[in-house]
Every structure is written in structure tokens, then in C-alpha cells.
């Protein structure tokens, strides 16, 4: 009898959840928006500025700023629950490292599956790993917002400018193009 | 008559085609071979020994055995692979995003106890280098587990900017016979003469060659200079270990330094002045603990900032040949768990 060569991977990847993200888009006017920063350098400032712009220019009523301390790992269930129940939309990032870019996308998909529109912000240097995570989560082609690499070394003024530049795409992701 | 090399080639290429290798040929794993590995442990093949939360992937004892076969291990090495894996699973960075990191860290595996001689782990000359099957293949097995069980592949879910030489190949036997100090595993709380594996992740290794003085303080200062480089500082604090050669360790011991004394000396003397840190743009520390260029008007230029906060941040062990006074500074990614996992006794 001839032996076959054994597969070290544990077999095919598990079948993912429903592939389509069908959460309704948000209306920003009067909305409460969650800002989930991941402790990466300049992430909090970036999201703060996005929150401020959304409030000033799109009529967002309130922001809920939270921190994910373990940036490489999925957002903890309690935090996911809190933001999903208290917010109309969530913005998370900045995916600016090997692990946190992937996990930011995973978090975005998790919020979408809870019916909450989510905009994920990643540095453009991490598109491959972000896209791969989306595929693993059964959301191939998941749309996220990119900002040019690098982010960590920017001055506060430059970070605010980046937030301004990313704003139209974040709004488009959250609203489906109808702000 | 030799085995058929064409069949071997075909089997090797089969593994390449499925993207199972680290770039070098692997040993194709057959059922009987994997069963021989599984026979060395009392643990069930289906037992989960590692979980990647972010990718929803698991590693079972059997998957680890397949990777160990592929890495070129002998069956009797498998309990060491399991202990090494368990030791890594106690490392916070390895459980988190370490394998995906732009830093591309390399596990440093340290083997203590009788298993070193029983299996032929190199503890002496060329201990960081190639040439010894147990050292080379146990370290490689870990890499194949990460790649194949967790699905973390370079350039995709692994985002190392440059990586570093030695990833999946650094497995040292401690030179207990020529060390003046207790084995690392004993330091980590295991009874003497326990076969055990300790693990930490490294950013890089850098040698200190000091065959120039017998003065222990001068030697320690030479180490402190290498340990205290600004280039590797990212956070407020850092972690840097030393793999002493027997000659350096014995010289220090003869001068009255035990391991704790050496560690205490490093805690006190490793650091940089504020002016040095400012010159490198690392004198400020943000709320997230990350260093950055500070605001003008901070504390004085001459203020000395220490950045090794505890002895666990400066692990010390002994390996290599006694033929020269050169040692290795190892830059730790995160911080060592401080634990050693007994071979054959892992949970």
C-alpha cells in the first residue's frame, strides 16, 4: 500500500459565516458614532479629528470614543456589544501594523454582522494582510478606507490633515454614498 | 541500494506545490511516521495545543507532529517540540500579534536538563549556528506549525518589514556543564535537572567580543553599551537578554557575580542620557508608552534614563564554547514569560 502525504494545515479553512455584508447604511445627521482606536501611534488623534469633522460638517450628534488595548486581537465581546448597542455607526483604526490592520478589518466585519455600518481605516502598506483577513472572515472584497503610509511619525497637524483627506471615503463607506 | 531519489523529489515537490514549506525542502509526512511521533507523547492527537483567536485557527498535537516530521525531527524530539510550543504559548506577544508583526521576531528556544545529552542538542561551539539536527529541526518545526496550522505566511498574514536572520532556527542547549550559574529552567522555577524548554521572541542578536580585560566592571560596561542602543528602543521600557559564553560567565562568577548580581548591575547601568535620547528623537513617551521626539524644555540633558525595569527583562543564560570571551546580546520582543516548560510534562 502506498502512503499518502499528510496535510499539516488541518484541512480547508472553516466555512465562513454568510459572505454578504448586508447591514443597512447609516444616516449621519443626528447619529451616534463610535470611535474605536487601537493604541497605535496617532490612531486616537486621527479618530478624534474624524469625529470632530463628522460632528461639525455632517451633523453627527455624539461620538463614543473607546480604546481596544490588545490591538492584534479581535475587539472584546463586551466592547463590541457596547458599541453595537449604543452607536449607529463605528469607525475603527488605524490599522498601521501587521497584526492590527488585519484585526481592524476583522472588527469592521464583526460590526457589520451586528448590523452596524463600520468604516475601517488602514495604512495603505497593509492592504494585502487586510484583504486576506476580509477573505478569512467570509467578506472578500470588504471595502475599507486607506490612508497613506506612514502614520506613526506624523505631527498632530499632519494627522488632522490625513483625517480630513480620509473623511469623504469614510462617509461614503458608512452611508453608502448618501450622507 | 539507496532509496529512489526521483520518488523523494516528487514527494518534496508535492509539498512545495501546496505551499507547506518555509522555502527549504520538507520531509513529506506519512501516517506511520506521524504515528511514531505521536507514540512519544501521552497526549491525544486531537488535543488542541494552540489557538489563533484572530484567525479562528487551532493547532492539534497531530498537526504539530506532522510539522515536526516535515521539519526533519526524529520521533524522540517531539516531546521537546511540544514543550517549546507550550513555552511560546505562554509568551504574550506570541499569543497576540507577534507572528504577524512588522518586526518579524524569531523565537529563541532554550533547552535545559538531561534531554540535551540524550538527544544530542548542541550547547557548545556554534550554538547559534547550523549543523546540529535537534537544534535545527526543533526550531524549524515551530515555524512550520505557525505557517501551516495557523496559516500565517510571509507577505500575507505575516508582515515582517525585513525579518531577521535566524527566524525558526535559534534553539540553544544551555551549557550547564560550564556555566557557573543555575540553569535557566531552574531560574524559572523548575527543579534541578529537569528537562525543560524556555522560549522568548527576539528582534535580533548582537555579539559582544571582549577578550581585552579581566575587570568585571569593564566587561559589564562593554555589554551595557551594546544593550543600551537607542535604535532598538520603541517603548518606555525594553527587554534585552544576554547569552554569555562560558568564559565571560566564569570570569564574572570568579569576581563574585552570580546571575542576580549581573542582572542587577544591568538594571542600574543600562540606559541613556536624556541628551542621547533626544538626539535620536526618542526622549518623549506617549500615553500608549511609545517613545517619540519630546517637547523642548524636558528634564536636563545629563539625566540618565534606565529602561530595563526588572530582572525578568534581562534574562541571562550561558551557551557556546569556552574557547573565546565573546557573548551574544539578544533583543527580546515583548518580555520573557519567565517560565520553563518540562519536556514530557507539558499540560
Radius of gyration of chain B: 21 Å
Specify Rg of chain A, calculated over alpha carbons: 17 Å
Structural class of chain A: alpha/beta
Mean pLDDT of chain B: 96
Summarize the structure.
Chain A is built from five helices and five strands; from the N terminus they run βαβαβαβαβα. By secondary structure, chain A is α/β, with parallel strands linked by helices.
Topology (elements, then pairings):
The complex is a heterodimer of chains A (179) and B (347).
Chain A (H helix, E strand, L loop, with lengths): L31 E6 L5 H16 L3 E6 L9 H10 L2 E7 L2 H16 L4 E6 L3 H10 L8 E3 L8 H20 L4
Parallel strand pairs in A: 1-2, 1-3, 3-4, 4-5
Helix pairs in contact in A: 1-5, 3-4
Chain B lengths: L4 H13 L13 H8 L9 E5 L4 E4 H11 L6 H12 L2 H4 L10 E7 L2 H5 L13 H16 L22 E3 L10 H4 L8 E14 L6 H12 L12 E5 L1 H9 L4 H11 L1 E3 H6 L4 E2 L5 E2 L11 E3 L9 E3 L7 E8 L6 E3 L5
Parallel strand pairs in B: 3-4, 6-11
Antiparallel strand pairs in B: 1-2, 3-5, 5-12, 5-13, 6-12, 7-10, 8-9
Notes on the structure:
The complex is a heterodimer of chains A (179) and B (347). By secondary structure, chain A is α/β, with parallel strands linked by helices. Helix content of chain A is 40%, strand content 16%. Chain A has five helices and five strands, in the order E-H-E-H-E-H-E-H-E-H. Chain A has a five-stranded parallel sheet, with helices on both faces. In chain A, helix 1 links the parallel strand 1 and strand 2. In chain A, helix 1 crosses helix 5. The longest helix of chain A is centred in the last third of the chain and has 20 residues. Chain A is globular and about 75 Å long. The N and C termini of chain A lie far apart (66 Å). Chain B has 347 residues and is an alpha+beta fold. Helix content of chain B is 32%, strand content 18%. Chain B contains twelve helices and 13 strands. Chain B is globular and about 70 Å long. The mean pLDDT of chain B is 96. At the A-B interface, helix 3 and helix 4 of A face helix 1, helix 2, strand 2, helix 3 and helix 7 of B.
Amino acid at each position: 500500500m502506498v502512503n499518502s502525504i499528510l496535510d499539516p494545515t488541518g484541512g480547508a479553512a472553516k466555512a465562513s459565516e454568510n459572505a454578504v455584508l448586508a447591514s443597512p447604511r447609516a444616516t449621519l445627521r443626528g447619529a451616534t458614532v463610535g470611535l474605536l482606536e487601537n493604541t497605535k501611534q496617532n490612531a486616537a488623534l486621527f479618530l478624534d479629528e474624524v469625529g470632530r469633522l463628522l460632528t461639525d460638517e455632517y451633523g453627527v450628534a455624539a461620538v463614543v470614543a473607546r480604546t481596544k488595548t490588545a490591538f492584534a486581537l479581535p475587539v472584546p465581546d463586551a466592547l463590541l456589544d457596547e458599541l453595537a448597542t449604543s452607536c449607529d455607526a463605528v469607525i475603527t483604526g488605524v490599522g498601521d501594523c501587521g497584526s492590527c490592520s488585519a484585526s481592524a478589518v476583522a472588527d469592521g466585519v464583526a460590526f457589520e454582522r451586528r448590523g452596524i455600518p463600520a468604516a475601517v481605516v488602514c495604512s495603505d502598506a497593509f492592504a494585502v494582510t487586510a484583504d486576506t483577513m476580509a477573505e478569512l472572515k467570509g467578506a472578500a472584497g470588504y471595502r475599507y478606507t486607506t490612508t497613506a503610509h506612514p502614520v506613526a511619525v506624523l505631527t498632530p497637524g499632519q494627522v488632522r490633515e490625513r483625517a480630513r483627506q480620509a473623511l469623504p471615503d469614510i462617509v461614503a463607506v458608512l452611508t453608502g454614498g448618501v450622507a | 541500494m539507496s532509496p529512489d531519489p526521483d520518488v523523494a523529489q516528487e514527494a518534496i515537490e508535492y509539498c512545495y506545490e501546496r505551499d507547506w514549506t518555509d522555502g527549504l525542502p520538507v520531509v513529506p509526512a506519512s501516517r506511520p511516521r506521524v504515528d511514531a511521533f505521536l507514540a512519544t507523547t501521552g497526549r491525544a492527537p486531537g488535543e488542541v495545543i494552540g489557538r489563533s483567536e484572530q484567525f479562528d485557527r487551532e493547532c492539534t498535537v497531530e498537526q504539530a507532529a506532522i510539522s515536526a516530521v516535515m521539519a526533519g525531527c526524529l520521533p524522540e524530539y517531539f516531546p521537546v517540540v511540544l514543550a517549546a510550543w507550550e513555552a511560546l504559548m505562554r509568551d504574550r506577544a506570541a499569543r497576540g500579534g507577534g507572528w504577524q508583526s512588522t518586526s518579524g521576531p524569531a523565537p529563541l528556544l532554550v533547552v535545559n536538563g538531561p534531554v540535551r545529552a540524550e538527544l544530542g542538542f548542541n550547547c557548545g561551539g556554534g550554538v547559534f549556528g547550523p549543523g546540529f539536527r535537534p537544534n535545527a529541526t526543533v526550531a524549524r518545526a515551530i515555524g512550520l506549525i505557525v505557517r501551516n496550522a495557523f496559516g500565517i505566511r510571509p507577505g500575507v498574514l505575516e508582515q515582517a518589514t525585513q525579518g531577521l536572520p535566524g527566524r525558526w532556527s535559534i534553539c540553544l542547549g544551555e551549557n550547564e556543564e560550564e556555566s557557573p550559574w543555575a540553569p535557566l529552567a531552574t531560574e524559572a522555577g523548575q527543579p534541578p535537572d529537569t528537562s525543560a524548554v524556555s522560549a522568548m521572541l527576539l528582534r535580533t542578536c548582537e555579539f559582544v567580543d571582549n577578550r581585552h580585560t579581566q575587570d568585571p566592571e569593564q566587561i559589564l560596561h562593554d555589554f551595557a553599551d551594546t544593550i543600551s542602543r537607542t535604535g532598538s528602543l520603541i517603548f518606555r521600557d525594553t527587554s534585552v537578554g544576554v547569552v554569555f559564553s562560558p568564559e565571560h560567565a566564569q570570569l564574572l562568577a570568579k569576581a563574585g557575580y552570580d546571575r542576580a548580581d549581573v542582572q542587577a548591575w544591568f538594571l542600574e547601568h543600562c540606559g541613556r542620557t536624556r541628551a542621547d535620547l533626544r538626539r535620536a528623537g526618542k526622549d518623549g513617551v506617549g500615553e500608549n508608552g511609545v517613545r517619540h521626539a519630546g517637547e523642548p524644555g524636558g528634564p536636563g540633558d545629563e539625566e540618565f534614563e534606565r529602561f530595563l525595569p526588572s530582572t525578568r527583562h534581562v534574562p541571562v543564560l550561558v551557551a557556546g564554547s569556552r574557547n573565546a570571551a565573546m557573548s551574544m546580546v539578544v533583543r527580546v520582543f515583548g518580555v520573557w514569560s519567565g517560565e520553563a516548560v518540562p519536556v514530557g510534562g507539558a499540560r
